[in-house]
Amino acid sequence: MTTTPTTIHLDDNLKKELTKKLDSLGISLNTYFNITARQFVLQNHLPFEISDSADIPTEKTEKAMILAKAKELKLIKDDSVSFDDIDKAIEFLNSEA
User: What is the number of other CB atoms lying within 10 angstroms of the CB of residue 25?
Assistant: First the structure.
């Protein structure tokens, strides 16, 4: 198998952090990119989930999710307003504004 030299540009801090983590696993930067590229070709999609800090819920959102789950499991009373009629729902929302 022949190889082709390829140049990539990385943020200095990202490269340092990535190299440090890969070194702890005994994997070189070159090997990491080869593994990732091969898996992309084999699986026809990225071999990992792409996320950022925006995917991490805020404390307020996390509390709301826990509260909703507790209500769903009937651990606490669900005192949420619900409607069977769209007009009544709109009337309620307009009265809250």
Answer: 9
